[in-house]
Amino acid sequence: MIYRILKFLIGIGIRLYYKEIKINEKKYLNTEGPLIIIANHPNTLMDAWVMGMISKKPIYYMAKATLFDSKFKLRLLRSLNMIPINRQGEGTTRGVDNTQSFEECYKRLEEGKTLVIFPEGTSYKERVLRNLKTGTARIALETEKRNEGKLNLKVVAVGLNYSQPEKFRSKILVNIDEPKAVKPYLEEYLKNPSGASKKLTENFRARLEKVLVTTQNKEEDELVEDLHKILNSKYIKQKEKGVKAEVNHLKDITESLIEINLSEPWLIQEIQSKVDGIKWRLDKMQIRADFLDRRFRSTMFFRQVLLAVMFIVLAIPVFIFGLIHNILQYLLTDWIIPKLSKDIEYYAPFAVFLGLFFYPVTYGLFTYFAVTQFHLNWVEALFYFASLPLSGIFAYWFARYLKHISYKWQYMLIMMDKKHALDDLKKERDELRKLIFSEA
């Protein structure tokens, strides 16, 4: 009961927090029979919540035992289908027995349930797929062994691709690989448990890499992100749109860098140098990289800016209304989260969790005040209450729109006064594109 209620509430929070959630091959999560879902782990609790939201069937999670460090947390998290496990190097949490936890995993799978495991063990924001623990493979193979290979247990690999995991109104692409049975590894497991578990874990890694954008280290991850911002442009026609197009572009960049590292590794330093130079010039000009691909006609741009100014004047009252009714919760959430955790990977889940409390309570207080002071009837009160979250989202969008217009205005001034500087920058950007994509 608690699981269903929280799944519903957190699902609302996730859909409000993220602008776009795209799921590829969702049908694979509805596979009949026992199922283990393996996924990367860039966003701590949010990863588990997203998996729970997109799965129709109730799912069980393996979670680190340090989350269950009190009787209250133990009971609460257990009611949410979470199974605690003491991880190596973190000591033993009172009330948590790994033998019992593994036994529960076996039983849940034997009952035909779905178990979610993050085999990296720890959560990091970077697109670096870390070493996978062999525990997932051992659980899968041991379950099949207990049932003499007749269970037909399958494993699905899920890639959670966030555009910016911690950022409000960013995007998620969930790639899901087809389910595959673990039975082919059972015969070797009976003879050599360690060897078979390692082989299956290697298979898990290959399958996760297939559904993810992966980099080798933090420095490469930052380079890939910078290249994506510089080379990706909404003003160039693309076959795909939205988060799927963004993730495919990131994947193309990482694959190109892998090839360059193998064939011409000295080019990486040149690429990094060009990236740093372009970023510096873009910051100095105060424009976005994709503006380099915009066609410019002074009369058209002037008309667009004029219309934008007219819209801004008309929209400011709505913006102020949304700002007044949402700024307190926004700032309070932003102030509390760093006190709960310094890790950026916890920002989004804490923001959703706190938001589910602060925003409804504040909206309720605003509505109560409006009803008592202005004697609203129930229809007016309902309309007022509904307008609060909508105006809040509009206020956030409007602030970003103002920034976009400032870029457009700055771009127009540069084009009329220093067009040669933009032409030079575009030429430098195109040279960078050729270095990354040799076919360009």
TrEMBL record:
InterPro entries for the chain: GPAT/DAPAT, Plipid/glycerol_acylTrfase
Domain Phospholipid/glycerol acyltransferase: 35-163
Molecular function GO terms recorded: glycerol-3-phosphate O-acyltransferase activity; glycerone-phosphate O-acyltransferase activity
PANTHER family, A to Z: GLYCEROL-3-PHOSPHATE O-ACYLTRANSFERASE 1
Pfam families, alphabetized: Acyltransferase
GO biological process: phospholipid biosynthetic process
Sorted UniProt keywords: Acyltransferase, Membrane, Transferase, Transmembrane, Transmembrane helix
Protein's name in the database: 1-acyl-sn-glycerol-3-phosphate acyltransferases
Domain of life assignment: Bacteria
Membrane-spanning residues: 305-327, 347-369, 381-399
